[in-house]
Backbone:
C-alpha cells in the first residue's frame, strides 16, 4: 500500500477530530519526559500511537526487578539495561513513524544547557526531582512558553499541574456554538435574497420550504416596525416568546405541518442573537501586546493576528469576519445552495480583507509575511471563539490555600480533592526530609497549607492517612488513567486545538471523582 | 516472577485504608488470592479492550476470558497497541490473548479467547464469571449482555454478576458499575444516549442540501436500485470508491460541495472518532473499579462517571437512578399514547426509532394473542397482515401489550394509555413539492 494512503487509513479515527492540520502539527512535535517509569511509559504510549514526531526520555537509571512490576513497557530481558533506552525501544515498536530518544545524562548537567530544553514542545516530569532542579527547569521553559507538566501518582490518587506562561487557541472546537448568521444586520445581498421571497405568492409546498433565515428576516422586519425600533432585537425572554408566537409562528399556514416554521420556532436561541464582538475577544484588543512597539519586539504570531483582527473590526463597523458556515435547514436544494453561496461569498470577502490587513501590518512593522493560508482561514472561521489564558508557576497556589482555610469545616468532595493535592505535594516535600513518619507528614501538610494542626477535621485526616499508607506510584490503573489525561492534554497543546487544562487536575480513584482548579 | 508482577499492588493491599468499608473483615492474603482466582470476562478486545487486558494482567488478575467477534483492521492501529501490521485480518480476541501470553511468562496466567459474537454463548457460559468488564463500541451488545445478566439473577441465590462498562467517543467517555437488580442497569439509561444522526428520506430523495444527504441517497436509494442484492461492503476499497463517485455525481447535479471519500466512509460506516488517550482514561477507570470490587479494598463507584476532555477536563460522578418502568430491571408498566390514525406498523416504527425503545426486531402480543411476530419467518407471514390494521382496532385504550425483541432477551409491558389526533393520517407536504 502506498505509504500516504496507509497513513491516512491508520490515523483515520483521530484525524476526524483534529483534521490534517492538527495531525501535521502532531507529527512535527517533540515531547520530553523526565524519568522512565510506568506513568511516563503510559503517557508516551498515548502519543506514539497517534504518531507524535519525536520523544525523548531523560533518565540515568538502569532497570531493576521492581521496575518491571506494573509496567507493560518493560520486560525481564530489560533488567540491567538503561531504563530510558528500554522504554524507548518498547514504545517505538508501536509505531515506526515515531522517533524515540533516550538520554542517559545527569539532570543537573543537562540543566546547564538551556538549548537542550528549548527544542521541546512540552516537558513532563513524572517522578519527584529535587525542588531546586524543578525550579531551574521551569525557569528555562517559562520565558519560551514551553509547557512544563508535573504529574503525580500516589496510591489511588493522581494529579497533574501545568506551568505555562500563556496558552492561546484559535481552533477551540466549541461543542455548542450558536450560529453567526447576522440576522440583525443583514448585508445587502442577504437582505435582497430575503426580499426575493413573496410568501403570499407561494403555493403550500413552496411555503413549507422557505428557509428559516428568510422567515426570521421577514418576521424581524415586522417586529421592528411594530416595536418602533429599527435596530433592536427580541432579546429578553418575554420578547423572544412574543416574537416566536406572534411574528414567526403566525406567518405559518399550518404550524403542525410546515417543518420549516417548526424549525424556525425551535431555533431562535441558536440562530437569532445580537451580532457583536464577544467580551473575551474585545479584551484581547486592549492588551498591550497588540501595540506596535510590543509587536516589533516580540514578533508574536498570535498577537499579530489579534492586532489585525482589531483593525478588521474597526474597519468593518464592529464586526468580526463572518465564518460563513450555514447550518442545515428545511429548504429546497436551490434555495439552500443560493443562500450558502451568499454566506460563503461574504466570508471570502471578509477573509480577503483580513489578509490585506495582515499584509499591511507586516509591511508597516517591517516583517516578512510568513503566515500561511491555513492560519488566515482558521482565524476568520473561529475569531469569536479565540481562547487565551495566562498560567502560573508551579509553586503558586495562594488562592487555593485561602480557599482551603476558609472551608475546612466543609468536607465536600470538592474540598477533599484539594486536600489530596496538598497531601501529594506534602509527600514530595517529606521525601527531602529526614523523618518520614505519619506525624511528620501531617506536620508537613500543615506547614504547606498553613492550617493549624488542631484544625484538621476527621475527613481531612482520613484523606491524608489514605495517601500515606497506600503511597505507591506504581499502581497501573492510576498510572494509566493519569497517562491518558496527560497524553490528551499534550495532544491538545501540540495540535493547538481544543482548550487545555489550566492548570491543576486531581483524580481520586476511591470515590472515582475528579476536580480542576486554576492555581495562582 | 509472579511476586514481581504483583509487587506494584501489594502496598495497596497490605493495610486496609480509612475508606475501606469492612476493615475488620479485610485480609491482604484473601485480596491477593481473589485477584489470582477470580474469573473475569472481558467483552471487546478493541481500543478499550487492549487497555483493559493490559491493566488487568498488570494488577494481578490471572484468569481472564476475552470475547470479540471482530478482526483487526489497519484503522485500529492508532490505538489498539496489542496489534501490529502483521496481525491485520486476525481475530482481535486471539491476537490480544496471544500477545499477553508471549509477554508474560507466568504459568498461572490463564487467558482464554473466544472469537465469536456474545450472543452465541449461553447462560451456562456467563455463569462461570464473577465479573464482566465491557469495552464495546455499540449499543446492541451492551443491551444484550445487560439484559442477560439482569435476567440471570436468582434472588434466592446470591449470584449477582456485576458488569463494569466503559465507552468512548472522541475526547469523551463514561464508565459505570452495574450491579444487576441493585443499581440502575444499561437499559435504564438508554434515553441518555445521543440519538444517531439520521436524515428524513424525503430530504434525501427530494431536497438534498448537505454532502451527507448525497451520500445517504447513494447508499440508501441508489445503490440498491443499481445493484439489487449486491450488498455494499465498506471494507472493499472499490465499493467505497464507487459509492463516493455516485454521491459525487448526485452532489454535482445539485450544486453541493464537499463530498469527499473520507466523509463518504464516515457516513456509510457511521464512524466514531477514537483516540488512544480517551480509551486509556476510561479503561483505567473501569479496571480500577474491578480491582476494588474483587479485592474489597475500597468502595466501588456508585455508579456512573461521565468524562469530557474537549474543553479542559471535566468529570461528573453520580448515582444514576433505577427506572421503575425499565423493561429489563423494572417492575412497572411503561405507558405510551398513540394517535388514532396509527396502524400496528406505526407502533412498530415507534418501537424501532424512539430513543427510549430502539428495538431492532420488535414483536407485539396481547395477552396470549400474537399481533405481530418478527421471527421466525412462518410466524411473521402469519401475522404480517395485522401491520396494516388500525392499532385502535387491535388494542383498546388502557389495554396492555407485551413487546419482545428477537435480538434482546427482554420482555416489556407496554400500556397504550390513550389515543389522540385525527382518524386519518395528515398529508406530508414535502411529497407535494414540484421537482
Residues:
Amino acid at each position: 500500500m502506498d505509504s500516504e494512503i496507509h497513513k491516512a487509513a491508520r490515523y483515520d479515527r483521530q484525524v476526524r477530530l483534529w483534521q490534517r492540520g492538527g495531525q501535521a502539527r502532531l507529527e512535527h512535535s517533540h515531547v520530553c519526559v523526565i524519568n522512565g517509569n510506568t506513568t511516563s511509559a503510559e503517557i508516551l504510549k498515548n502519543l506514539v500511537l497517534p504518531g507524535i514526531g519525536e520523544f525523548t526520555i531523560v533518565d540515568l537509571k538502569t532497570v531493576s526487578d521492581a521496575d518491571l512490576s506494573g509496567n507493560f513497557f518493560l520486560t525481564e530481558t530489560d533488567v540491567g539495561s538503561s531504563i530510558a533506552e528500554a522504554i524507548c525501544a518498547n514504545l517505538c515498536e508501536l509505531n515506526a513513524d515515531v522517533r524515540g530518544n533516550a538520554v542517559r545524562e545527569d539532570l543537573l548537567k543537562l540543566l546547564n544547557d538551556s538549548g537542550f530544553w528549548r527544542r521541546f514542545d512540552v516537558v513532563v516530569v513524572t517522578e519527584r526531582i529535587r525542588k531546586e532542579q524543578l525550579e531551574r527547569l521551569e525557569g528555562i521553559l517559562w520565558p519560551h512558553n514551553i509547557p512544563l507538566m508535573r504529574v503525580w501518582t500516589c496510591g489511588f490518587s493522581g494529579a497533574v499541574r501545568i506551568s505555562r506562561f500563556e496558552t492561546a487557541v484559535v481552533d477551540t472546537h466549541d461543542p455548542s456554538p450558536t450560529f453567526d448568521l447576522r440576522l440583525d444586520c443583514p448585508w445587502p445581498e442577504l437582505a435582497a435574497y430575503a426580499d426575493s421571497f413573496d410568501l403570499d405568492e407561494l403555493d403550500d409546498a413552496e411555503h413549507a420550504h422557505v428557509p428559516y433565515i428568510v422567515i426570521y428576516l421577514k418576521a424581524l422586519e415586522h417586529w421592528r416596525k411594530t416595536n418602533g425600533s429599527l435596530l433592536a432585537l427580541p432579546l429578553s425572554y418575554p420578547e423572544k416568546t412574543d416574537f416566536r408566537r406572534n411574528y414567526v409562528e403566525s406567518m405559518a399556514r399550518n404550524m403542525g405541518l410546515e417543518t420549516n416554521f417548526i424549525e424556525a420556532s425551535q431555533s431562535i436561541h441558536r440562530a437569532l442573537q445580537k451580532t457583536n464582538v464577544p467580551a473575551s475577544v474585545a479584551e484581547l484588543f486592549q492588551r498591550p501586546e497588540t501595540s506596535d512597539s510590543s509587536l516589533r519586539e516580540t514578533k508574536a504570531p498570535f498577537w499579530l493576528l489579534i492586532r489585525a483582527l482589531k483593525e478588521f473590526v474597526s474597519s468593518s463597523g464592529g464586526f468580526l469576519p463572518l465564518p460563513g458556515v450555514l447550518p442545515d435547514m428545511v429548504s429546497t436544494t436551490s434555495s439552500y445552495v443560493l443562500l450558502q453561496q451568499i454566506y460563503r461569498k461574504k466570508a471570502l470577502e471578509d477573509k480577503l480583507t483580513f489578509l490585506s490587513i495582515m499584509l499591511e501590518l507586516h509591511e508597516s512593522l517591517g516583517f516578512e509575511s510568513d503566515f500561511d493560508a491555513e492560519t488566515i482561514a482558521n482565524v476568520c472561521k473561529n475569531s469569536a471563539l479565540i481562547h487565551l489564558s495566562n498560567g502560573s508557576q508551579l509553586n503558586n497556589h495562594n488562592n487555593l490555600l485561602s480557599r482551603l482555610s476558609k472551608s475546612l469545616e466543609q468536607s465536600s468532595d470538592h474540598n477533599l480533592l484539594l486536600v489530596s493535592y496538598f497531601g501529594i505535594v506534602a509527600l514530595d516535600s517529606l521525601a527531602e526530609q529526614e523523618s518520614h513518619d505519619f506525624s511528620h507528614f501531617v506536620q508537613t501538610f500543615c506547614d504547606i497549607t498553613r492550617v493549624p494542626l488542631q484544625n484538621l477535621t476527621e475527613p481531612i485526616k482520613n484523606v491524608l492517612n489514605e495517601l500515606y499508607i497506600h503511597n505507591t506510584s506504581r499502581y497501573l490503573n492510576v498510572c494509566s488513567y493519569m497517562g491518558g489525561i496527560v497524553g490528551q492534554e499534550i495532544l491538545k497543546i501540540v495540535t493547538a486545538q481544543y482548550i487545555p487544562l489550566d492548570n491543576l487536575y486531581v483524580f481520586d480513584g476511591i470515590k472515582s471523582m475528579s476536580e480542576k482548579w486554576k492555581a495562582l | 516472577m509472579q511476586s514481581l508482577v504483583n509487587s506494584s499492588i501489594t502496598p495497596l493491599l497490605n493495610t486496609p485504608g480509612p475508606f475501606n468499608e469492612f476493615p475488620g473483615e479485610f485480609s491482604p492474603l484473601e485480596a491477593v488470592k481473589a485477584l489470582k482466582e477470580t474469573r473475569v470476562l472481558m467483552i471487546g478486545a478493541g481500543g478499550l479492550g487492549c487497555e483493559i487486558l493490559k491493566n488487568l494482567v498488570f494488577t494481578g488478575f490471572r484468569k481472564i476470558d476475552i470475547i470479540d467477534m471482530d478482526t483487526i483492521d489497519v484503522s485500529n492501529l492508532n490505538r489498539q497497541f496489542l496489534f501490529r501490521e502483521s496481525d491485520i485480518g486476525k481475530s482481535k480476541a486471539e491476537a490480544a490473548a496471544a500477545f499477553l501470553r508471549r509477554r508474560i511468562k507466568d504459568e498461572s496466567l490463564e487467558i482464554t479467547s473466544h472469537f465469536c459474537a456474545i450472543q452465541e454463548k449461553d447462560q451456562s457460559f456467563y455463569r462461570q464469571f464473577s465479573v464482566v468488564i465491557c469495552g464495546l463500541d455499540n449499543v446492541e451488545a451492551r443491551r444484550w449482555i445487560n439484559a442477560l445478566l439482569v435476567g440471570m439473577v436468582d434472588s434466592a441465590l446470591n449470584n449477582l454478576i456485576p458488569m463494569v462498562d466503559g465507552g468512548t467517543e472522541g475526547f469523551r467517555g463514561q464508565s459505570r458499575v452495574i450491579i444487576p437488580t441493585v443499581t440502575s442497569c444499561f437499559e435504564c439509561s438508554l434515553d441518555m444516549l445521543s440519538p444517531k444522526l439520521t436524515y428524513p428520506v424525503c430530504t434525501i430523495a427530494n431536497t438534498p442540501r448537505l454532502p451527507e444527504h448525497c451520500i445517504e441517497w447513494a447508499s440508501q436509494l441508489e445503490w440498491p436500485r443499481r445493484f439489487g442484492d449486491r450488498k455494499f461492503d465498506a471494507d472493499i476499497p472499490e465499493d467505497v470508491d464507487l459509492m463516493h463517485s455516485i454521491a459525487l455525481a448526485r452532489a454535482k447535479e445539485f450544486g453541493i460541495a464537499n463530498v469527499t471519500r473520507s466523509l463518504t466512509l464516515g457516513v456509510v460506516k457511521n464512524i466514531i472518532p477514537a483516540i488512544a488517550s480517551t480509551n486509556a482514561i476510561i479503561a483505567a477507570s473501569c479496571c480500577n473499579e474491578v480491582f476494588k470490587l474483587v479485592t474489597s479494598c475500597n468502595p466501588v463507584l456508585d455508579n456512573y462517571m461521565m468524562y469530557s476532555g474537549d474543553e479542559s477536563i471535566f468529570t461528573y460522578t453520580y448515582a444514576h437512578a433505577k427506572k421503575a418502568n425499565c423493561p429489563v430491571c423494572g417492575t412497572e408498566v411503561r405507558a405510551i399514547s398513540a394517535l388514532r390514525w396509527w396502524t400496528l406498523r406505526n407502533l412498530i416504527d415507534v418501537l424501532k426509532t424512539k430513543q427510549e425503545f430502539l428495538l431492532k426486531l420488535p414483536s407485539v402480543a396481547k395477552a396470549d394473542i400474537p399481533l405481530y411476530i418478527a421471527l421466525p419467518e412462518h410466524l411473521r407471514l402469519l401475522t404480517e397482515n395485522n401491520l396494516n390494521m388500525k392499532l385502535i382496532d387491535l388494542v383498546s385504550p388502557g389495554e396492555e401489550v407485551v413487546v419482545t425483541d428477537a435480538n434482546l432477551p427482554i420482555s416489556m409491558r407496554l400500556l397504550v394509555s390513550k389515543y389522540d389526533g385525527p382518524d386519518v393520517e395528515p398529508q406530508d407536504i414535502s411529497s407535494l413539492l414540484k421537482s
